[in-house]
Write a structure and sequence with these properties.
alpha/beta; 21% strand; binds adenosine-5'-triphosphate; binds magnesium ion
Length: 474
C-alpha cells in the first residue's frame, strides 16, 4: 500500500473527514472484513446481506485501523463518502496512476480464472514483485482491494476480473487499465443472469476491448467465442491451444497430454522459442488450457521457456476447494471441487473422476446444484446427470460411476438425466442435504473408491469433503 493521509483519501474519494487527524496516514491494507484489519490499515464499511460493516467500525479501529471509510457517521475517525465501492475504485485508480512502473495483466473467463491467476502469479513472481488477489477477489470490491496492496516496489499486477453483467469488466478495466488481457473461455457460469452465451461473450470481450494498441490480447484459440474477440481489440493478439493442430495456429500449445493416477497432467509445452516438458501439480485435464494461458502471459512479460516450464511444474494450488485430490488412510480418494459449479466445470470434474477410477476403484459423484443458470437450469442439470451416467459406459472412461448422489434442490433433474442412459447400472440417490449424503456414502465406500464432491458455493458441500477427509468443519 502506498501511504496515504486521511486528507488525501478524502480528496481522492470526494469524502468528508470526520473525527480523524488529516495527517494520520494509512499504510496498511484496506479491508472490508473487520476480522482482517491490520495496524495502520483502513476499514471500508460495507452493508452486506447478513451484517453491516458500520457496526464493526469501532472494533476495526480498536484492532488498529487508522480510520473507517463509511457512508454514515460512526463513533471513530472516518472518511464519509457517498458510495464505498466507487471510493475504493477511486483510491485504487490513484494508486495505479502513482505506479507507472507496474505492468497490469487482467484475466477473465467463465471457468478457471482463479486457477489460472494462481498459476500466472507464480510464473510472474519469477520476474519481479507481483501483486495478485487472494482467492477470487475479482469484483468491484475485490479488484480495488487487491490493487490497493501495490506499492513502489510492485512491478506486476495479475488481476482476476469477473462479470455478472454487461459493463462489469469494462468498469474493472477502468480501475486498473490492463495492458495484457487473457480470456480463457465463454461458458455457462452466470449465463442465466446474462441471458445466454452470446451475452457472456459480449461481456468477457470488454477485456480485449479495453486493451491499448501496444497491449497484448491472449486468447483461447480452442473457444470460437473467445477467438472471435480478436476482432474486438486494438492490441496484438496471441493465442494458445490444446488442439493437436489448431486451425488458425497458436503461439503457445500443449502436445502429448497425459494424466497420472491422480489426474495430474503432463505435456510438452510448445512455444515459438522451443519446447519443454511440464508436469502440473494441479489435478484435471482442464488445467492444461489454464497453464497455457498462464504461460502465454508470462512469456509476453519476458519469462523464458525454462522459467515457464519450471514455474508451471512447481506451482501449487493457492486457492482452496478447486479440484483438491486427497487419498485417505483407507485408500479412498476424495476430490473436493466444491468451490463452485457450472456445466463446464462439472463436466471437467466428472472427467477427472472417470480418470481416477481407471485404476479399478469405483466412482461416486456427490453433486449439488449449479446456481444461476436461469431458464436453462432444469435442462442443464438433466444433461449433467446424463453425462455422469455415461461415464459408466464401456470405453476409455474406465470403471465408471458406481453411484450418483444428487443433493438438494436440483436432485430430481440430475437423476432424471442419469436415467436417460439405460446402459448405466450404477445407483442413483436423491438426498436432501450433505449430512445425508455422508451417511449414504459411509455405508458404501470401500478402499480404492473415488468420491467427487461438487456443487455451487450456495450448496456448501465443502463440508461433505472435509468430513470425508476427517477434517474439522470449515
Ligand atoms: N478451463 C476450465 N474449464 C472447465 N472447468 C474449469 C476450468 N478451470 C477450472 N475449472 C473448474 O472450475 C471451477 C472454478 O475454478 P476457478 O475458481 O479457477 O474458476 P473462476 O473462474 O475463478 O470461478 P469464479 O467465477 O467463482 O471466480 C473449479 O471446479 C475448477 O476445477
Ligand atoms: Mg475466481
Amino acid at each position: 500500500m502506498i501511504p496515504l493521509s486521511l486528507a488525501r483519501i478524502a480528496q481522492i474519494t470526494g469524502g468528508q473527514l470526520d473525527r480523524g487527524d488529516p495527517e494520520a496516514t494509512v499504510s496498511g491494507e484496506v479491508v472490508i472484513d473487520s476480522r482482517r484489519v491490520a495496524p495502520g490499515g483502513l476499514f471500508a464499511a460495507v452493508a452486506g446481506e447478513r451484517s453491516d460493516g458500520h457496526d464493526f467500525a469501532a472494533a476495526a479501529v480498536a484492532a488498529g485501523a487508522v480510520a473507517v471509510l463509511a457512508t454514515r457517521p460512526v463513533p471513530v475517525p472516518s472518511v464519509l463518502v457517498a458510495d464505498v465501492p466507487a471510493s475504493l475504485a477511486a483510491l485504487a485508480r490513484a494508486v495505479v496512476d502513482a505506479l507507472p512502473q507496474a505492468r497490469i495483466a487482467g484475466l477473465t473467463g467463465s471457468s478457471g480464472k482463479t486457477s489460472t491467476k494462481d498459476l500466472a502469479a507464480q510464473l510472474v513472481e519469477r520476474l519481479g514483485p507481483t501483486i495478485a488477489p487472494a482467492g477470487s477477489f475479482n469484483n468491484e470490491f475485490g479488484l480495488p482491494l487487491t490493487v490497493l496492496r501495490a506499492d513502489a516496489a510492485t512491478r506486476y499486477l495479475v488481476l482476476e476480473l469477473s462479470a455478472r453483467g454487461i459493463g462489469h469488466i469494462a468498469y474493472l478495466c477502468g480501475i486498473a487499465p490492463p495492458r495484457y488481457g487473457v480470456v480463457l473461455n465463454v461458458g455457462h457460469a452466470h449465463a442465466g443472469e446474462f441471458g445466454g452465451l452470446d451475452q457472456v461473450a459480449r461481456a468477457k470481450g470488454e477485456l480485449p476491448e479495453a486493451l491499448p494498441a501496444d497491449g497484448v490480447a491472449i486468447l483461447n484459440a480452442d473457444d470460437p467465442r473467445v477467438l472471435a474477440m480478436a476482432d474486438r481489440t486494438r492490441a496484438r493478439v496471441v493465442t494458445f491451444s490444446c488442439a493437436p493442430e489448431p486451425a488458425r495456429g497458436a503461439a503457445v500449445r500443449a502436445a502429448g497430454v497425459s494424466l497420472d493416477d491422480l489426474g495430474r497432467p503432463s505435456f510438452t509445452l510448445l512455444t515459438p522459442e522451443g519446447s519443454a516438458p511440464v508436469t502440473l501439480r494441479l489435478h484435471g485435464a482442464h488445467n492444461v488450457p489454464n497453464a497455457l494461458a498462464a504461460a502465454a502471459l508470462a512469456r509476453e512479460l519476458g519469462l523464458d521457456l525454462d522459467g515457464i516450464a519450471d514455474g508451471l511444474s512447481t506451482a501449487t494450488a493457492r486457492s482452496r476447494w478447486r479440484m483438491e485430490v486427497r487419498r485417505r488412510g483407507d485408500g479412498v480418494t476424495v476430490i473436493n471441487d466444491a468451490y463452485n459449479a457450472n456445466p463446464e466445470s462439472v463436466r471437467a470434474a466428472l472427467d477427472a473422476l472417470a480418470h481416477l477410477t481407471q485404476g479399478g476403484g469405483r466412482g461416486f459423484a456427490v453433486l449439488g446444484h449449479m446456481a444461476e443458470l436461469g431458464d436453462t437450469s432444469r435442462a442443464s442439470h438433466e444433461d449433467i446427470g446424463e453425462y455422469a451416467a455415461r461415464l459408466a459406459s464401456p470405453g476409455p472412461a474406465g470403471a465408471g460411476l458406481a453411484g450418483l448422489i444428487a443433493v438438494g434442490q436440483e436432485a430430481t433433474p440430475l437423476l432424471d438425466g442419469a436415467r436417460r442412459v439405460p446402459a448405466w447400472t450404477g445407483e442413483a440417490l436423491a438426498v436432501p442435504d450433505g449430512a445425508t449424503a455422508l451417511e449414504e456414502l459411509a455405508n458404501r465406500l470401500k478402499p480404492s473408491d473415488v468420491v467427487l464432491v461438487k456443487a455451487s458455493r450456495a450448496a456448501h458441500l465443502e463440508g461433505v469433503a472435509a468430513a470425508l477427509l476427517g477434517e474439522a468443519g470449515q
